[in-house]
Every structure is written in structure tokens, then in C-alpha cells.
Amino acid sequence: MTTTTQHVIPVFFATDDGYAPYLSVSLESLIENASAGNLYDVTVLYHDVTEETRQRLQSMATDTVHIRFFPIDQEHLKTVQTDKNKLRFDYVTMTIYYRLFIAEMFPQLDKALYIDADTVITTDIAELYALDLNDNLVAAVHDNFISGHPETSDYVTDALGFPVHDYVNSGVLVMNLRELREQHFASFFSGLLTTYHVQSIAADQDYLNVICHDRILKLGPEWNTMMAEGEALTHDPKIIHYNLFGKPWNYRDAPNADYFWDYAERSPYYSKLVDGLNSFTQDQKLSDAMKREGLIRQAAQIPQNPVTFSKLARNGVRVTL
Q1: Domains present along the chain, CATH in parentheses
Q2: CA atoms within 13 A on the CB side of 5
Q3: Who contacts 301 (Cβ-Cβ below 8 Å, separation ≥6)?
Q4: Less crowded by CB within 10 Å, the N or C end of the chain?
Q5: CB of 39 within 8 A of CB of 74?
Q6: Digit-coded pLDDT (tens) for 226-278
Q7: Please, which residues have CB within 8 angstroms of residue 36's CB and are 6 or more apart in sequence?
């Protein structure tokens, strides 16, 4: 009798209770496109998720896609809770930081995928995991929202200290966990965060870009097709990322919303998602517009701060591994 060895693909998500319905859609899309020849070991990092939510999401598991929940430990949580960058303009959550501790929290893994919960996967992610990172720390896709506005583009150049075309989105990552550990990424990040409290428009993402700069492998846009304004979307998206403000569960006419609702129909949260879409108010739409304006306004202001990554570097502080 012959046996077949499955390739194990570690995949990480992060969520709280509020984002669980959207995570369920991403999980459904991963499951439907998974290959029977692989084992997808999905770990959901969390801090504030009820037992009912965990059970509902774990009920989606299959023979080839295992789903487990792993709590963020108090020591790591304490590090980020004390920082003023815990607010994101699109959603208030601490889960944005959890990906930065994966290498340290899972020392048995040399490599993994990290995928944001507000995504839909249209292909077998084994293809992405098979990518050779060489000695790069992560692989990611350029952030086209940031490069699509003068204020945010100048923010990267002036406040972070490198050209905007080098700036990547942290919503989809191939992570070289072994190299991140060898470079002591987590402690380096925590030291910068708690020592200098650099204000940023995308806290986790900005730190990742600055710390890993020159060791980021750029992926094609099909692996993180974002909803940025003013740029054509790829015609063959492999992972669609509903980042920032055009969420398909709030706006049925959002770009690539049909992909989301196709998978959502088979989610255990489908009725809740429909109710949320139907109850999204004009005031909430106005709030989205105001948050977008606030993000761009803050991007224009931050380079004038006395402490920025670029100013720290000019003063001899090591900000990049």
C-alpha cells in the first residue's frame, strides 16, 4: 500500500468578534480553492473572541483545511496596547499588530502565509506558499492606495524615508519566519514602538515597511488586489483585499463585490452579512468619507512631527534590520 505525504501550508489570520463574519467569507474562499493534496493549517490569532464565534468558525473546517484559534499572549498585547497607533482609520482594533509576532510565537515554523480577514481567495494559495523567499524577510504587494494620492505618497518619502514605489501592503504576506527570528524582528519592532512612539497612518504596516526595507520581495498585484481609487484592478485577481473604506458588506456596488457575495452565500454568517448590508446607513457612508479624508489629512501632517522614522534615521537611530 502506498501513502501520500501532504504538504502542510501554515496560514495565519487575525480577528476579533466584530470581524468574524468577514473572516468566515475568506475562510470559505480558501476552503473552496484548496487542493486535496495539501493540508492547510489555519491559525486564527485572537484576543477578544467568544467561544460561540470560535465554534462557528471552526465548524467550517474540512479534511484538508484545519482551523484552530490561538490567543495573543498578554506580554505582546501589553506592548501594543500602550501605543497611540492602535487606531486605524478603517477599523479600531489591536489585531493589526498580531502578524508582527508570528515568528516569535511559532518557533517551530520556518515559513507561513498571513492573510487579512477582509479578503477573498480565488485560487489555491499553495502557489503563493511555494514562492522562494531566498533571504528576504517577507514578500508582499505594492500598496496602490498610498501611491495614488500626493499626500500619502509624500508621507512615505518624507516620514518613512524611502520611495513610495517600495511601500507594500501588509494584508497579504509570505513570511520568512526563520529569518525574522534570526534578525530578532519582534524585539526590534517592540523597541522602536515603545521607545519612540512614532506616529503613523498604518501602524503595523509602516513599521513592517521601515524595518524590512530592502528585504521585501515584491509580488504581482494579483496576489493582493486592493480597492484603491484611480488605478485599474487586475483582471485575474488571486487574492482580493477589501482594504480601507469600500467594503462589499457595506456597499453592494464596491469593486469586486460579486466575488465576496458569491462566497458569502455559503458562509455561516450569510444572513448576518445581508442584514448588515441592508442596514448600512447614509450617516455611516458619510463617516467612511470623513475617515478617508482624515487619513489623507494626517498623512500630510505627520512629516512635520519632531519624531518620524526618516528623522530618527538621520539622527543615527537604526530603524531598518
Answers
A1: 7-245+253-314 (3.90.550.10)
A2: 1
A3: none
A4: N
A5: no
A6: 986 645 567 789 999 999 888 999 999 999 999 999 999 999 999 999 999 99
A7: 64
